[in-house]
Amino acid sequence: xxxxxxxxxxxxxxxxxxxxxxxxxxxxxxxxxxxxxxxxxxxxxxxxxxxxxxxxxxxxxxxxxxxxxxxxxxxxxxxxxxxxxxxxxxxxxxxxxxxxxxxxxxxxxxxxxxxx
Length: 116
What we know:
Elements (H helix, E strand, L loop, with lengths): L1 H54 L6 E4 L4 E7 L4 E7 L2 E6 L3 E6 L12
Antiparallel strand pairs: 1-2, 1-5, 2-3, 3-4
């Protein structure tokens, strides 16, 4: 007798599980929207700014590496490496992604003669 009552209760409550799933969706959807605007979107914007900062490093910029070493960019080797002068006559090659900040922007390099 006990078993048949349990089956009867499950059968009657079967439609309420769909309602609780829908309620849970209505609770989590606004939470996901808030999560996106407070965490995901600002992180993407910050990553975009950092990528732009690293791609715009030029000769003459004063940079700080992640290790704390301050130096001046003497040569841009390629898209991934820089040559940095950390003391007079001491030049090292550094990976571009290890640049923590650009302190002083150097003079723009003149590639072409001025237009007439």
